[in-house]
Amino acid sequence: MKIIELQTSDFIKHILHLLRLENMARPTGQKRQAAQADIDSADASRRTRSKVTEDANHHKRRTRSSDQSLSSASAKKLISPKTPPSAKKKFVKKGTARPVKKNAKKLNVNTSSSGSDQPAATNDSHRRSFPKVVISSGGNRDDGKASNDETEEDSPDGPSYWLMKAEPDSRIEKGKDVKFSIDDLKKASEPEAWDGVRNAAARNHMRSMLQGDMAFFYHSNCKTPGIVGTMEVVREHSVDESAFDKEHPYYDEKSTRDKPKWCVVHVEFRSKLQNPVTLKELQKYAKPGGILENMQTLKMSRLSVSKVSKKEWDFIHTLTGPDANGAPTTKSAING
């Protein structure tokens, strides 16, 4: 009996020992998991702090670089001996002409013709005095060579010069004749609206025109194309009403009254040349080194409105001889 009791007691002790060992092992595992979680949390916190520090340092570097650039630019501005002329703002006194806009676009399309007169307000404040044509002391040149003493350069106080093309021969478009010649302009009893221009570069030139600017009248799309006379811009650009007329040869459905695309200027006859300057004659002076080498209408033959420099304007007048009335065709004679 005692032996059985001893065996039972030993068995119970053994069971209790095992339970004690299990209880001791369980807290250790939980502690280990908690410790690992603390380690992971510490690593994440360290990575976050490192990222924040890196971003802050990057921002500081960018700010320092920007400050250095600004300081360098300010220093250069302070030590610059003189502001270049191109950087100076041009101020226009009240009552003087505004500078002509420069248009760098070069598009080539096409056509211009006459049209009905459109009302536009006249701005007398833009009228400018016209300088006399300056020709070299040796008389009229006929060699077409550029010369420094032959003509004055374009002046912001003087007029700008243009060349505008129209068709002198009958041509029917949508049942209407688009013919318009220098004689038609001469017969006009009031300023004529130069409408029908549907090329962006030509339109931009017209928007740049000021009252008092001068233009060559050029006959195009005919047997002998060339410069046949001169005219003056008397009203600056306004909306081209012909673009809204479905019956007009140059109707444009994309041009609306809310957003008109096209414009007109109003011109008046000034002279008809007794000896027109033909296209072939102009081309003779457009060779490399020639005085008309850079003339826009010779480089962009399909452009109906083009820029003419004062040097080109003056030189072409030396080729024209007297006008149809026997008077010289210099600028001073036209406006005298």
Distance between the termini: 155 Å
Q: Strand order within the widest sheet?
A: 4-7-6-5-1-8
Share in β-strands: 15-25%
Give the overall average pLDDT. Answer: 74
Low-confidence stretches: 75-81, 87-95, 100-143, 146-152, 329-336
Helix amount, in percent? 25-40%
Give the tally of β-strands: 8
Write the layout of secondary structure elements.
Blueprint: H1 2-79, E1 161-166, E2 172-173, E3 176-177, H2 182-187, E4 192-193, H3 200-208, E5 214-219, E6 226-239, E7 263-278, H4 279-284, H5 296-299, E8 305-308, H6 310-320, H7 331-335
Parallel strand pairs: 1-5
Antiparallel strand pairs: 1-8, 2-3, 4-7, 5-6, 6-7
Structure report:
It is a single chain. By secondary structure, the protein is α+β, with helices and mostly antiparallel strands. Helix content is 35%, strand content 15%. It contains 7 helices and 8 strands; from the N terminus they run αβββαβαβββααβαα. It has a 6-stranded mixed sheet with strand order 4-7-6-5-1-8. Strands 2-3 form a two-stranded antiparallel sheet.
What labels would you give this structure?
alpha+beta; 6-stranded mixed beta sheet; two-stranded antiparallel ribbon; 7 helices; 35% helix; rod-shaped
Short overview:
By secondary structure, the chain is an alpha+beta fold.
